[in-house]
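[step 3/7] fold_predict: job queued, chain A
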Amino acid sequence: MKKTIALILMFFILLNLAGCENVRRKFTRKKKEPVKMPHIYQIKKYEKKPSPELYKKHYSYWMSWQSELIKVVGANHKKDVRCIEEIVGNLNDMQNILVPEKAAELKSHIDKLVKVKDIIDKEEPTQANRDVVVRTLEREDRFIKREFSYNKVKNYLRKSFEDDDGKGI
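[step 4/7] structure written:
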């Protein structure tokens, strides 16, 4: 019995001297190295050319923002500001796709909508302001849909954005 106790005691002493470093190292979490994002270089320069699809896209966006603003004008100032900015932005994009003669026709209507933008941005939303804005938006909506739909302007689209000769497709 004394031999077994001595053996067990020696075993514990040897185990204590050897330590459990390997066991501890096995179960400790290793630090993760941060994942480095690879650098992406643009090799090819993409050219954006005016196309019927691009015009149709901006026309569709303009129509949706215009109808949205007509419905909710005066309800939420931030939404009104966002809508009118998108309307003017899409009309400017449509204007850039058109030849200069047709673009000049659209410019006067963009200017009217810029005045509406100034009213929405600066003035207090009163019923009179709201009525002026709605009437102007509805009038411009009808005119632009009538005169600047794709079927009406498909012969007045530019061939390239550097092209200022005024010739259509």
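[step 5/7] annotate
The chain is about 65% helix and 0% strand.
Residues 52-156 form one domain.
exit 0
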